[in-house]
Design brief:
Layout lengths: L7 E5 L9 E6 L5 E9 L3 E8 L2 E13 L2 E12 L2 H30 L1
Antiparallel strand pairs: 1-2, 2-3, 3-4, 4-5, 5-6
Amino acid sequence: MHEWDILIEYVQFHGVLRVGSVGILKPKGAPVVDLVVTELVPPHSYTNEFTLFGSTFTFHHELEELDSNTVSMRFWVEARGLMAKTFAPLMRKDIEKKLPILMNNFKEQFEHED
């Protein structure tokens, strides 16, 4: 993920990745947080979440191979908790601004793995 996601400095998991796995995530400009895998259906979807400043942020990713040369990726974030109303608009604006770069990086990562 951190190879293509410019919003993340690093993410680390130890052992086999499965639902309930806990790793560490360092978002750019934010402190290190525990990242929990809440859904994992390889290679179609995964969901993970972390808690920061009293709010829980859930990141959903859905991947669909449309043909041998095309993968569709759907991505959305849910924010719940005390600070969600403050952080969600800031995160949304940052993600929207960087989305073209994120998708290009993801595309390059996907093509490189072939």
